[in-house]
């Protein structure tokens, strides 16, 4: 039988390269197992056929789908493995915000307290999804979740069924400029937060600089939110009809031959 080269790249839940994974291909009760290399890539040379692909990390299943091999193929498998950096940023941001809030509460400076809370929320928004859409079948056995992240600038579509646990980088089909713009939003928000912090630090000593920093930071953060809505609203008009989405859509399950109808919620 002819043998085909299959290259599998494993990604985490945000679409970034994931190392230390093990790929198992199963067909007719026989398993082929390989560990990924330093780039998160695993290469198999296998005969044609339908295989069940399972991704393991620390002996835990983090991805699963079928693949139909009839030629040389490459796959990017988005798993449900969460990266650690968002948790680190969230923990540091919350700790900083709580300490600063307690300090301003003690000083009875409620205006500065509100500014600190705003900075905390803006920083959290950099690592949290800016847009999320969930759809599920009437029996709730199939669920798809789409998340738009600023870091990295990826739109991730993740599908779960009793036999499938897999995602895809939906934004990969969009122009590269889209991801660059989304990543730029996170930089602008960070700069905006930095300006507001400068305002709080020099508020009592350099009032003109303080006012300019507060105005600049507020404009940058507000403009980013507005631009994101405009850009993403135009994008979602093509896919689901609106920024919020409603009604029923067809779900394509990776590795399966038929689509199903699911309700947006």
From TrEMBL:
Q: Which UniProt keywords apply?
A: Membrane, Transmembrane, Transmembrane helix
| Membrane-spanning intervals of the chain | 84-105, 112-132, 181-202, 214-232
Q: What is this protein identified as?
A: Uncharacterized protein
Q: Which organism is it from?
A: marine sediment metagenome
Lineage of the species this protein comes from: unclassified sequences, metagenomes, ecological metagenomes
């Amino acid at each position: 039988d002819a043998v085909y080269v299959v290259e599998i790249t494993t990604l985490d839940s945000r679409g970034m390269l994931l190392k230390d994974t093990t790929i198992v291909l199963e067909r007719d009760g026989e398993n082929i197992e390989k560990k990924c290399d330093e780039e998160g890539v695993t290469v198999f040379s296998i005969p044609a056929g339908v295989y069940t692909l399972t991704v393991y990390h620390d002996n835990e299943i983090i991805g699963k789908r079928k693949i139909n091999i009839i030629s040389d193929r490459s796959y990017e498998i988005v798993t449900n493995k969460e990266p650690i950096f968002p948790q680190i940023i969230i923990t540091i941001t919350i700790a900083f915000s709580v300490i600063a809030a307690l300090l301003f509460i003690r000083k009875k400076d409620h205006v500065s307290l509100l500014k600190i809370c705003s900075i905390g929320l803006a920083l959290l928004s950099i690592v949290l999804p800016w847009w999320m859409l969930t759809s599920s079948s009437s029996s709730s056995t199939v669920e798809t979740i789409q998340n738009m992240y600023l870091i990295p600038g990826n739109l991730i579509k993740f599908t779960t069924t009793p036999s499938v646990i897999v995602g895809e980088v939906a934004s990969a089909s969009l122009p590269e400029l889209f991801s660059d713009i989304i990543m730029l939003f996170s930089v602008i928000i960070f700069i905006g937060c930095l300006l507001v912090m400068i305002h709080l630090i020099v508020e009592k000593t350099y009032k003109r600089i303080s006012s300019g920093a507060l105005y600049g930071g507020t404009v940058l953060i507000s403009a980013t939110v507005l631009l994101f809505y405009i850009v993403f609203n135009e994008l979602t008009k093509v896919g689901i009809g609106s920024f919020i989405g409603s009604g029923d859509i067809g779900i394509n399950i990776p590795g399966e031959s038929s689509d199903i109808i699911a309700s947006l919620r």
